[in-house]
Amino acid sequence: MIEKDFVTRGTCSRMIHVKIDDEGIVRDVQFVKGCSGNTQGVARLAIGRPATEVAETLRGIQCGPRPTSCPDQLAQAIDQALQQNA
């Protein structure tokens, strides 16, 4: 099991905790702060899906004028978790 605490940048959320199992499936996502409904929705949609698929789907999403978003930050958290475990 890979567990990663990722400090976000440029978003309302402050941290993302992600768990990825040994088969590469996202098993848990928890956002600290941020827009509660949106972050809960993103987390629920990610759980049970392949981590690489989630990251590819969410990478590059922007929030208004910001160059990133909570979904984009989740993609970055997953990328880092997978790289650190490689």
Attribute tags:
3-stranded antiparallel sheet, Sufe protein. Chain: A, single chain, globular, TSCPD_dom, about 90 residues, alpha+beta, CHP03905, ribonucleoside-diphosphate reductase activity, thioredoxin disulfide as acceptor, EC 1.17.4.1
Explained architecture:
With 86 residues, the chain is an alpha+beta fold. The protein has one domain (2-85): Sufe protein. Chain: A (Alpha-Beta Complex), CATH 3.90.1010. The chain contains 3 helices and 3 strands. It has helices at residues 36-46, 51-58, 70-85, and strands spanning 2-7, 13-20, 26-33. Strands 1-2-3 form a 3-stranded antiparallel sheet. Strand 1 and strand 2 (13-20) form a beta hairpin. The chain is globular, with a radius of gyration of 12 Å. The chain starts with a strand and ends with a helix.
